[in-house]
Please model this.
Amino acid sequence: MDALASHKQLDGTTDRGAAELAPDCAGLSFYALDRGLRDLLPLYLGDRDFRALEPHFDRLGALAGGRLDELARIADRHPPVLNPRDRFGRDEDWIDYHAAYREMEAIAFGDFQFHAMSHRAGTLGMDHPLPAVAKYTLQYLFVQAEFGLMCPISVTDTSIHLIRKFASKELQDYLLPKMLSGDVATLWKGTQFMTERTGGSDVGAIETAARHEDGEWRLYGDKWFCSHADADVALLLARPEGAASGTKGLALFALPRRLKNGRRNAYRIVRLKDKLGTRSMASGEISLNGAVAYLVGDIDAGLKQMMEQVNLSRLSHGVRAAAMMRRCLNEAMVCARRRKAFGQTICEFPLLRRQLLKIALPVEQSLSMFLFSAHAMDRANAGEADAALRLRILTPLLKFRACRDNITAATGAMEVRGGNGYIEEWVNPRLVRDAHIGVLWEGTSNINALDIITRAVGKSRAHRQLAATLEKLLDEATAIPAGFRNRLRDKLKAAIKFAERIAAEPALEADARQAASGLYHATSAALMAWEASRPGNDARRALLARLVLEHRLSKQDPLAPSGNWEGEAAELILAERKIALAEVNGLLR
Ligand SMILES: Cc1cc2nc3c(=O)[nH]c(=O)nc-3n(C[C@H](O)[C@H](O)[C@H](O)COP(=O)(O)OP(=O)(O)OC[C@H]3O[C@@H](n4cnc5c(N)ncnc54)[C@H](O)[C@@H]3O)c2cc1C
Model:
């Protein structure tokens, strides 16, 4: 920033100070900036892992605000290019990527080894696989700079999970050493292709056929949306000949790009999609022309097995939305604190402060929600059935709400930057473009809301476990005024009751999104109050909990002023220092 401030013009005069006229986050550490994250990590990760991993969070935070951000900007401007044939006319289709994308891959797959970190020891110097809280925190920091590449990173990670859990020993021995490698040159990356022209939501409509020919499975058909189109191994669903129609007849297959003899497998990347966002990453269409594939797991349980990957991806998408929203907030805050208008920094204007709060609220909600979800995953992996049930509902809740909130946060941050926010030299247009994919892939908002209400609530009754855990946390939060905690409890109960009603009455299906939002907001408010009550934590999270109560879970009179408390709350929430509980208790009503 100082370098920018003293920039010399060609005529020898000194620029008035780019940092003041047009401030941005270049060169800042996204870890150091993130007080909420730094406070919460010891709580969710535990002291030992936090101490061991903090240098890596710090390093990635600096990279995300520095080199990675520069690379991401270049890669977004130079999308991948498909070469359908080689110069001899052979169907050796391949994709060219810009050097900036390749450098990001080296950071992700070589340096940090995101794909392998929760499957084996030895990444980031750890003697055990990383807990989910650490993995998703690293994803969160990375995505604040680069979103597109997180798709290949995450699908490689989730493909490894499926192979480890369901594949035969022989298939594991063949694939896992390649997929878990930290050597970028020889690593086999994974992906997941389900969607066909017949539909993405309606998976049962899949038409790709699997035929058992000469002792091996061969696939015939088309996949319509294939992100990370040139991955080395794609997990996909296909219908074995003679199998039932609908989802029951689908089997899971692993499709290698190259055969054991080194030749290209019999499928083609037909073309790449010209996308609104995630432009650095290649999404394409593929046609399967008798491609060899390996059956994974139980032939009758294809979708059930694939749903494990979908759920892991959904959690990652929630984290990615949290990350992009944080980047929006970082940019908006830096801008608001330095940009001047009418002789004042714009942050001093009440209307602008309100805008900043509107961005900050979903950002902090999603932070608490993803850390709490990742913590549930760690407990579930340790064998706790209650935690697995909690995770069942937290995953689609986070995916559904954070991805939707990301769209308004991105637009809000663009507006805070003013006209520059609309110009592609700044990060905002990319954040706006990238934000929209979250409500489409791995299930649209409707599909996630239905998963929450009809399955997680209606069938698994997972909401009851979630509510019981939150009640316990509220009991623990004795530092928070009792009256405020009771309000949180009442809203939680109301949200649970509403969700149960919508789940029980099919005629009310159109309210599924509203019920899902209610659960998300009540959960995040209870969590933030509990977090604020923990010793040493920042009390502004309790104020955010009150904002959730007032603005997301209560009726507002559109023709009445919002009340003085919000102005006071805004001062504290936007302050650049740690806030003590004593300062906020009077505002927790
Ligand atoms: C850039 C990009 C990359 C992608 N990458 C991949 C990939 O790598 N692998 C992969 O498998 N897929 C991928 N997808 C596909 C994505 O998952 C699907 O687009 C998505 O699941 C929606 O499916 P669809 O496009 O067929 O829409 P449809 O399923 O036809 O949905 C159309 C609309 O109908 C609504 N709808 C459908 N059913 C219901 C219902 N029961 N109740 C209420 N509303 C309903 C949906 O919410 C949506 O608004 C990608 C998509 C994009 C845009």
Q: What stands out?
A: The longest strand covers residues 283-295.
